[in-house]
Amino acid sequence: MIGFYVEEEGDVCYIRFKSDCYLNHDNINLLCDKINNIDINPFIRFVVFLGENRIFSKGQDISEICLAYEDENISYSFLLKNSYHKLLTLIKNSSKVFIAAINGMSIGVGTCIALACDVIYSSSKSVFYMPYLDIGLLPDCGFIYTLLMTIGYHKTYEFICTKEYYSADELYKLGILNDILDEKEFKNNIKKKILSFNKGKNITSLLKKYINTLKNKDLSEALFQECLFQDEARKTLEHKVAIEKIKKLNSN
What we know:
Elements: E1 4-9, E2 12-17, H1 25-39, E3 46-50, E4 55-57, H2 62-70, H3 76-93, E5 97-102, E6 105-107, H4 109-116, E7 119-123, E8 127-129, H5 143-151, H6 153-162, E9 165-167, H7 168-173, E10 179-181, H8 186-195, H9 201-215, H10 219-233, H11 237-251
Helix pairs in contact: 1-3, 2-11, 3-10, 5-6
Organism: Phocaeicola vulgatus (Bacteroides vulgatus)
EC number: 3.8.1.7
Pfam families: ECH_1
């Protein structure tokens, strides 16, 4: 099942995550294919990630994590490198402006994708849920790297260790969100924000490339280390206990 659908309005491409579908390796690769096509489309300037029914993203399909844990022939690092890391790199290297428009619950990898975008807007009632440590894993899809570059070491460590749920207001105060928008006219407010990007597309594209050149000089190394540490996390007791709980719940 494809976990998203696409709408185009003028120079804006809206990619809407389906509220009844989890993200998995196949869906992320389909999303990568779509972004590759968008990147060579001269008529598209903006890409906006949205959700539906008050859910931005339900996060990663947990069965994918369970399968990687149970089958020694399946490498979770391989899944990361060939889907989520590929998506992150495409967003960062694209000439388009990527906007995360979060209106509702954002879980796990959905929040990771949002943080990879160039600009992040949220409604005031959005909630961000990061359950990684609860299942004995580290936040991935470049989340720790991006957060570290945004708020620094101390706040990053506290952010991940002490809470699972965050409000839009908390993330705005940390400097993670660009703005909080009225949810009643959320999509119209997003359109107004897009109109504020009124500089030439060539120079703004070059600016994005330049900023990321300065910021992400070590991104490839960070993603490589993420795979190594995530493989170590999968060997922990916390992850083993979490997988057993999930299997028990799924069998009922």
